[in-house]
Amino acid sequence: MRKQVLTLVLAGAAGLAATSVIAAGGPIEHRKAIMQSVGASAGLAGGMMKGEIAYSPAAGKAVIASMNAAAHSFGAFFPEGSDAGDTTAAPAIWSDAAGFEAALAKFAEATGAAMAASGKDGPADLDAFKAVAGPIMGNCKSCHEAFRVKK
Ligand code: HEC
Questions:
Q1: Is the separation of the CB atoms in 70 and 38 below 8 Å?
Q2: Structural domain boundaries of the chain?
Q3: How far apart are CA 89 and CA 146, in angstroms?
Q4: What is the pTM of this model?
Q5: What sign results for the dihedral spanned by CA atoms 19, 74, 84, 140?
Q6: For 98-151, how does the pLDDT look when each residue is reduced to its tens digit (9 = 90+)?
Q7: DSSP strand E in 45-138: where?
């Protein structure tokens, strides 16, 4: 009797866990959401660099911190088998895992350096922001060319 109750409780817990995984979305949704935030930050960065949006240290810091968080979390959402589905992730991510790791590390190095140079309040002026944001932006194209397919 006790064993049956325990089995029921366990089955219920497993069901709950499965439901929450579905509700929260799978790895493809997670990594795309991360890249969408990177894209939005890049839009803000580009707007400030072109002078279309007034620069402020807080906005500069927001760009850098969100990209740094993305650089550190993005790589966790590429489990085996997540190459199929609504994704533009290239097969090279799995066939050249070391290369992808290196691209992620390069991205994280640039965002980390920008964080370190930002201080508590963000880069003081647009020139200081450009100096650290420029190297971050160079990573978008190089990684996308190697590890993303056009659809
Ligand atoms: C280390 C590799 C890497 C770097 C660096 C990188 N990306 Fe990506 N990006 C990807 C991959 C892989 C995808 C495809 C994700 C998928 O569809 O599963 C992607 C997808 C995207 C998407 C589409 C998201 C969607 O909804 O499908 C945008 C926008 C984007 N990246 C912007 C950027 C910008 C802007 C930068 C630079 C600041 C950047 N990325 C840097 C690897 C990278």
A1: yes
A2: 26-147
A3: 10
A4: 0.87
A5: positive
A6: 999 999 999 999 999 999 999 899 999 999 999 999 999 999 999 999 999 987
A7: none
Residue nearest to atom 12 of ligand 1 (CA): 89
CA–CA distances in Å: residue 21 to residues 9, 24, 53, 134: 19, 5, 39, 37
- d(C-alpha 106, C-alpha 86), whole Å: 26
CATH class, range 26-147: mainly alpha
CA of 9 to the centre of ligand 1 (A): 41
Burial 82-100 (b: 16+ CB within 10 A, else e): beeeebebbeebeeeeeeb
Ligand 1: residue whose CA is nearest its atom 22: 35
**Ligand 1 pocket check: which of 36, 37, 38, 86 to mutate, most ligand atoms within 8 Å of Cβ?**
38
